[in-house]
Amino acid sequence: MPGDWIQQFPDLATLPPDEQQMLAKSAQAVSLPPQTTIFAPGQPAQSFMLLLEGTVRVQQVSAGGREIVLYRIGGGESCIMTTACLLSQDTYNAEGITETAVEAVALPRSAFDDMMARSAQFRRFVFSDYSSRITDLLQVVEEVAFERIDKRLAQKLLERADSDGSLAATHQDLAVELGTAREVVSRHLKEFQRRGWLTLTRGQIGLSDPPALARLAEAE
Prior knowledge:
Elements: H1 10-13, H2 17-26, E1 28-32, E2 37-39, E3 47-53, E4 56-61, E5 67-73, H3 80-88, E6 95-98, E7 102-108, H4 109-118, H5 120-146, H6 149-160, E8 166-168, H7 171-178, H8 182-194, E9 198-201, E10 204-207, H9 210-217
Antiparallel strand pairs: 1-7, 2-6, 3-7, 4-5, 4-6, 8-10, 9-10
């Protein structure tokens, strides 16, 4: 496929011409609709995927069926779970699902291995993105382990609300985002509603008092 996509990744755009040509020749275009499972637990990683457009949610499901969102991948990013599986030759222990229509390029495992062996600059690109994502992932772990759920819920509501102060989300959606039980989220949402901070309708939340939520979100 043409190599125009390489320009979306600044570190790849400065690769020597022969290495850019190798990437362009090996990469395969990928187009996926929303709610497509890209990978799942137990599957091997077959390619190194670079997202051009859209969003992919990476989440883990416990033995009891509880889900937690680990991170999201957007345009100009790669997936550290895939990188880890390619490097270790292990299988996935999480699942990746497209939240929107996705345009991406996939570098087959053999081409990924060749580029890792051939190009120091490509290795820096892979490990730089990996280390950045690991930091984000550790923050998720820290929040789940140590932050109060009401504070994290307030942060998530403010993060997901549109310019009108509303968001389309079920209690289960928010529970998955926060790595907790739906009942816990419902209890806190009802308390926020009692305080006049928001209104609840089926599948929709309206923020009535964003400053109050912001104060809770920023509380120590």
